[in-house]
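Weekly puzzle thread! Below is a chain. First person to post its structure in token form gets bragging rights.
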Amino acid sequence: MKTNSNITTLDQILDKKYGKKGQVKREQWEQEFEAFRLGVLLEEARTKLGMTQEELAEKCGTNKSYISRIENNSSDIRLSTLMKIIQQGLGGHLKLTLEI
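Winning reply:
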């Protein structure tokens, strides 16, 4: 595939700002981005189902402020809690991938 040499890719920008993949600063950015992405995915699923944060919290046994913190990337989340939110709260299933 031919690319335009005037176009800067996201990887090129990240390489310049945070270093190449595998470097500590870049890996930290990648992890923070994935946490942000998870919050966005949960919020999109919740709103698609027409649920408020309070309704989701009630269905999975937590509180609205915790759901808000997850959606806004202000809180770490345990895998068991994430699964409960997805399964009990949203009626979905969690699929994980591992890249090495």
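Puzzle host: Confirmed. Bonus trivia for everyone else. The radius of gyration is 17 Å.
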